[in-house]
Amino acid sequence: MQLHALALVHLAIALLLAPILLGLVNRTKAKFAGRRGQPVMQTWYDLAKLLHKDEVRSRTTTPVFGLGPVVGLAAAAIAAALVPMAGGPAIVAFPGDLVLVAYLFGLARFFTVGAALDTGSAFEGMGASREVLFSALAEPALFLGLAVVGRRTGSFSLTSMLGAVDTGLWTRAAPELALAAIALGIVLLAENARIPVDDPNTHLELTMIHEVMVLDHSGPSLAAIEYGSALKLWVLGSVLVGIAVPVRTGSPWVDGGAFLAGMAVLAIAIGIVESTMARLRLVRVPQLLVSAGGLAAIALVLTFR
Prior knowledge:
Layout: H1 2-32, H2 42-51, H3 63-82, H4 97-118, H5 122-153, H6 158-163, H7 167-191, H8 210-213, H9 219-244, H10 252-276, H11 285-302
Helix pairs in contact: 1-9, 1-10, 2-9, 3-4, 3-9, 4-5, 5-7, 5-11, 7-9, 7-11, 9-10
């Protein structure tokens, strides 16, 4: 019963703090630009504003257009219930649940792409094509990176895998875990449309990827998309922090505090990357993603030493 209650608390924390993670990223970018920046709660304010607005839809769209935001948010929320925090339990855990998490995001992407194509817009179709290509290249790195952790921990359930990553495991398998963490970090940036793969703030149609697919959404549908994106960042960030911050004392307060500090550092790191790097040319993005897959593959080979 205690473990179940702890898992519910972890899910509640994810649902509440995921938008704040985006606020930390934007605040960091503002500091680098010499500005005061918006409050870290700004994403929540924006979501509340969107929920109170009317939704405008093109007459050319079908019900497929409305399914994109709903399925995307539902998939991200279910994924959040499958990914543990601070080495603790997830609400749902079973061998191979990491595959379900990956394909929940694949399901969300399928419906988002379908909604973009449903508008009949050439620009949204272009963004959908790029999204599908880059996600297909990022998927091997994701699975190989998780396979490294699974191989070292002897489990293929996220709860058991991340719970077993501690300082002792890092002492025995630092090279493999470090390479896997780097690969998963690149995947996190790609899957969440962050620099150097994509720029979430750009409005140049010829260079947009994710943002161009949601141009026709508004009101509550856009709020669902934005909240789902925040949850996706939190979920993938939880996996990365679970590997990179191996604090496993057995105390929920200590482990939870170290995890939240790690998530804050991750958000700040994303903001620093976006402030100090330029976006890659589109033809260079596949090379980056293939390189991430290569790093994860090398790490997997090292686990057989």
